[in-house]
Design a protein that fits this description.
alpha/beta, TIM Barrel, Rossmann fold, 4 domains, 8-stranded parallel β-sheet, 5-stranded parallel β-sheet, 22 helices, 23 strands, about 30% helix, disordered N terminus
Length: about 750
């Protein structure tokens, strides 16, 4: 491992040096941080060249895992953010830095013009964001019938602008026009849609908004005009020329400028490059298409996009917002996350097979940085053709990779970063970064819990994994405010367990003024975060989360006692006012024994002795993560669980769940839901299905990833007035719920 002076000064992250093509350590545990470099030739992977078969056989992972090796050298620290914190001019606006809040995230899940919505945006302003693009909120727009907006609507908008302005922030608004089939629209319909955009802009200007972003990407009307796939018209708005395709957007830009004046900023969001691997809005192959459809291959190239962007600039646009383009609801909506969520096979497609970035996206995406800054090289091509500022989205996080993101700005590849989730995870992001407190920034773990799915479980989980406040403030069972209320009477608090739930509880309680001591039986903090990071790989930044929480304990004066097993006697002798139990869950049971097939504890599944044919018993996220890891390491994996099919991998976020399950199936993992292991024999097991049949499969080992069980017995027999169990020891589920529970109890005591 190497370090630099810059790393030592800032030390926000545990930076990984070397290839992600890691080897198993002597003890059988994957060392993700200090693995040796592995040189893999193209010939060895593709089957070209001499002696490649032997080379592939010697590889520890399946061949697909070597197609997109990751370079973690990009995660380096710097003390020099001179370009990031240099002035940015967008039309008449001058900002003091290059980080802009994109119009995406959580606000659309907040109902109505409420104080909750108001406070949501104020947090970004307080945190140092100077330009906030507000996502489309119907209540802020003029009535569809053409009548004047209620006075209360105008007053709310003015108050939102005023309150954010107290901290130096300016607000823009994103207009996203949905509905209608481009081919079916009359010229009157098109004119009415343009007029609608103008009416919204005028009302926003009346409220004090400084600009409007036209969303001409994704599923929006503007994108459907720009697209050769969606636009089948043959008139002046049709696909016959770039001018025709861009006409709806360019006319709207012109009309807004005419109505609102040159000082009203107009930004346009487009798909600067498109790709398609799934047009049917279902990220699996398990979808029966009973309709006849045409090939969905009419994606917009970089060259086309640049041509239309030049026309949009000529129409009066002040800045461009450039993003990846899905031709359908496709994982590239969140390309930098879902393409890289699979440890060992970086760059998997929505079909679960290996994604060769050199053959897709015109070979222009940055594929070796786990999705960080994925679009920067594409944006650089747009900048060469345009004179207006060009910003980009898709995992823009300068605190995560300072040198990389600072250098991209310094080299003129991009003008500004449109950011959402990093700012949502830590609303003080900009202020902390400016102050050099990079190790105090809460990291986005790229889990996509913030994107609510379609079923009740997904909706219940639609909150940030790290920031327990997002979408929960002022809601039922959520905190009453973003602010931490100082403790009326400081208490002596004993936190037992140094995992994410315990660390979060200790952090919040200490920040409120309580005297907190945290006990951890192991030699280091983190609980299952350390192990989860090894299983999942560095993509989800779990080492960073552990480092952040540890730093917060230090910053808030929490006394940490390591290698100390706590029992009732110790609790009673310490006589705390409050005990918070966060010791994690107890392992579940396979429910059968015998034969010569060993049952291996989940935490040992990465070691030696698993053999080739492995049964993973369980259906939770841990089981699926283990199944993926073992598959990538050339094991033949079967998942068996007594739980129903709909419970498979349910602890994952909605998009990650669909992606992970599809990937596993495509890699050959067999899943038997509603089944149990009936008998363990000689190198085989018998699986009994709830439907009444049995299956016998070969097995060299069984990994016990059964559902975990609560573990609250330590609270029995203690003489403490306030005692709480949180996290997995109370309700085993996932990191998001554990941190949420820790935050809630830290606020309650």
């Amino acid at each position: 491992m190497t370090s630099s002076e810059g790393r030592n000064k800032l030390n926000r992250r545990t930076f990984l040096k070397g290839s992600v093509l890691t080897t198993l350590a002597a003890g059988g545990v994957l060392n993700a941080a200090c693995s040796p470099k592995t040189v893999v030739t193209e010939e060895a992977v593709t089957g070209t060249g001499t002696g490649n078969a032997a080379a592939v056989q010697e590889m520890e992972l399946i061949p697909q895992a070597y197609l997109n090796p990751q370079d973690y050298d990009y995660r380096q620290n710097t003390t020099d953010f001179k370009t990031l914190f240099s002035p940015l001019k967008i039309g008449p606006l001058t900002l003091n830095h290059r980080m802009v809040k994109s119009a995406a995230g959580s606000a659309t899940y907040l109902n109505g013009l409420t104080d909750e919505l108001l406070q949501y945006y104020i947090q970004f302003a307080k945190g140092g964001v100077e330009l906030i693009w507000v996502e489309g909120i119907a209540e802020l727009e003029p009535p569809l019938d053409g009548s004047e907006a209620p006075a209360a609507t105008i007053e709310f908008g003015k108050k939102l602008v005023e309150e954010c302005g107290k901290y130096g922030a300016k607000l823009g608004y994103q207009w996203a026009q949905f509905g209608g089939v481009v081919a079916d629209m009359t010229l009157e319909d098109i004119a009415a849609a343009e007029a609608r955009g103008v009416a919204i802009a005028k009302q926003l200007q009346q409220m004090g908004f400084v600009g409007m972003e036209i969303n001409a990407a994704g599923f929006n009307l503007g994108e459907h005009f720009l697209s050769r796939y969606h636009n089948t018209r043959t008139d002046e708005y049709g696909a016959g020329s770039l001018e025709n395709r861009a006409r709806f957007v360019t006319e709207t830009v012109q009309k807004i400028k005419e109505a609102c004046g040159k000082d009203f900023v107009v930004q346009v969001l487009i798909d600067c490059i498109e790709e398609n691997d799934n047009l049917d809005n279902n990220a699996t192959l398990m979808w029966l298409d009973n309709t006849v459809s045409s090939p969905a291959n009419l994606v917009t190239s970089i060259e086309e996009g640049i041509g239309m962007a030049k026309l949009i600039e000529a129409a009066g646009c002040d800045s461009m917002h450039l993003r990846l383009g899905p031709l359908g609801n496709h994982p590239c909506q969140f390309g930098s996350d879902l393409y890289f969520i699979l440890n060992g096979i970086e760059g998997a497609t929505g079909y679960g097979t290996q994604w060769d970035f050199s053959r897709h996206w015109q070979g222009q995406l940055i594929a070796n940085h786990s999705g960080a800054g994925m679009l920067i090289n594409v944006v650089a091509r747009y900048k060469e053709a345009l004179t207006i500022p060009c910003g980009t989205v898709t995992y823009m996080d300068p605190a995560h990779a300072p040198d990389f993101f600072e250098q991209a700005l310094a080299d003129g590849k991009v003008d500004f970063y449109l950011m959402n989730r990093p700012l949502t995870v830590d609303t003080e992001y900009v202020n902390k970064l400016k102050a050099g407190k990079i190790d105090e920034i809460a990291p986005c773990t790229r889990c996509l819990h913030c994107h609510i799915g379609s079923n009740q479980m997904n909706r219940a989980m639609g909150y940030c994994r790290v920031n327990a406040l997002t979408q929960r403030v002022m809601t039922e069972n959520g905190p009453a405010t973003y602010e931490l209320e100082p403790a009326a009477t400081p208490k002596k608090v004993m936190v037992i367990g140094g995992g994410p739930a315990g660390m979060e509880a200790a952090r919040i309680a200490a920040a409120r003024g309580h005297k907190v001591t945290l006990y951890e039986k192991n030699s280091s903090l983190g609980g299952n975060l350390t192990f989860a990071s090894m299983v999942k790989g560095p993509h989800e930044n779990l080492d960073d989360l552990k480092a952040y929480l540890s730093k917060q304990l230090e910053k808030n004066g929490v006394t940490v006692v390591l290698q100390k097993e706590v029992d009732a006697a110790l609790i009673n002798s310490e006589a705390p006012d409050v005990v918070i139990l966060a010791v994690g869950a107890l392992p579940g049971e396979v429910g059968v024994s015998g034969g010569n097939v060993p049952i291996i504890d989940f935490k040992n599944f990465m070691g030696e002795g698993t053999g080739n044919n492995v049964i993973v018993f369980g259906s939770n996220a841990q089981a699926f993560d283990a199944a993926l890891w073992l598959t990538v390491h050339k094991k033949k994996v079967t998942i068996v669980t007594p739980n129903p099919n709909e419970d498979l991998d349910k602890q994952q976020s909605h998009h990650a769940h669909r992606f992970m399950t599809t990937a596993l199936y495509s890699l050959g993992v067999k899943v038997y839901p509603s089944a149990r292991i009936k008998e363990i024999g000689d190198g085989k097991v018998t699986i009994a299905h709830d439907g009444g049949w049995e299956t016998v499969i070969p097995a060299d080992s069984i990994i016990n990833a059964a559902d975990l069980k609560p573990n609250k017995s330590l609270l029995d027999g203690i003489s403490v007035k306030e005692a709480y169990a949180i996290g997995d020891c109370d309700q085993p589920f996932n990191i998001a719920l554990a941190i949420r529970a820790g935050n809630d109890i830290g606020r309650k005591i």
